[in-house]
Amino acid sequence: MGNAAEIYALRYATMTSRTPHMNFLQPDPHDATAQDLDYFVWLIRLPGRDILVDTGFNAEEAKLRNRILKLNPVEALANFGVRAADIRDVIVTHLHYDHAGNLDRFPAARVHLQEREMAYATGRCMCNGLLRHPFSVEHVTQMVRHVYGQRVTFHSGDGEIAPGITVHRVGGHSDGLQVVRVLTARGPVVLASDAAHYYANLHRKSPFPIVYNIGDMAAGWDTVERLAGHPDRVIPGHDPLVAEIYPRSGDSGDVFALHAVPSRSFATAEAAQ
Ligand SMILES: [Zn+2]
Ligand SMILES: [Zn+2]
């Protein structure tokens, strides 16, 4: 485990008071509790090498969508002591606006993307307003520019980014959505991104309403659980609980250490739900 990676979640925005119908395709009719939705990028640190997972959105995109951006993820990284110019690898889990902006801010980075995500985001499904809505044509166009600039490594299914760091296509939420498995000192941790927005989407097997293929999404939950091997090693993409149960790292903002053991276990909660 000498080369075990560290993982940090950097929170850069929060959307408040989302009603259950915004978070579950079929919400529990007895549950009216509103929940916040957090936005993160994730930094994987190996000895001598940083890998960024997703790039968030910027102020321009936040304004278009009426979101409140606390700070640009590039600044969140800088506050944490990491220069965007030094990042050599960026894994983009999928091309939705809150995961694939700022791609012009990492001049030295190779971008890792699933082949099917590029095809999905530039193909006929984008003629449909509902499916197109989570994408930004500016972000997708930037990715096309990176393809033409030979800056993109395409993965088809499973792929290795570095020793102990692998990507796995799950699809479902977006056709080419990939999750990231990271070998840490506490075992493999899976950054599920939008394969599970909240712990509850995964634990209740209850889809988030933005979905391309529900069958693939359900199979993706199994894949995430299998890759992690333990419910406490799955990190949902947008759940404010992550910031509650993982220790804050230093005083450089909303940064949480995911390689640490969480203060709450889901080992029995999962079986109970
Ligand atoms: Zn998404
Ligand atoms: Zn998202």
Task: Give keywords.
5-stranded mixed beta sheet; single chain; alpha/beta; 7-stranded mixed beta sheet; about 270 residues; binds zinc ion
Tell me what the structure shows.
The protein is built from ten helices and twelve strands. With 273 residues, it is α/β, with parallel strands linked by helices. The chain has a seven-stranded mixed beta sheet with strand order 6-5-4-3-2-1-12. A five-stranded mixed beta sheet has the order 7-8-9-10-11, with helices on one face. It is globular. The two termini are 34 Å apart. It binds zinc ion (2 copies). Residues 94, 96, 134, 173-174, 194 line the site of one zinc ion.
Provide a brief overview of the structure:
The chain has 273 residues and is of the alpha/beta class. It has ten helices and twelve strands. The protein has a seven-stranded mixed sheet with strand order 6-5-4-3-2-1-12. A five-stranded mixed sheet has the order 7-8-9-10-11, covered by helices on one side.
What helical percentage do the residues reach? 25-40%
Per DSSP, what share of the residues sits in E-state strands of 2 or more residues?
25-35%
Overall shape: it is: globular
Counted by DSSP, the helix tally is 10
What do the pLDDT scores average to?
Answer: 94
Strand order of the largest sheet: 6-5-4-3-2-1-12
Computed Rg: 17 Å
Bound molecules: zinc ion
The count of strands amounts to: 12
**Which structural category do the helix and sheet elements fall into?**
alpha/beta
Uncertain residue ranges: none
Q: Quaternary state, please?
A: single chain
**Cα distance, first to last residue?**
34 Å
Could you give a short account of the major beta sheet?
7 strands, mixed
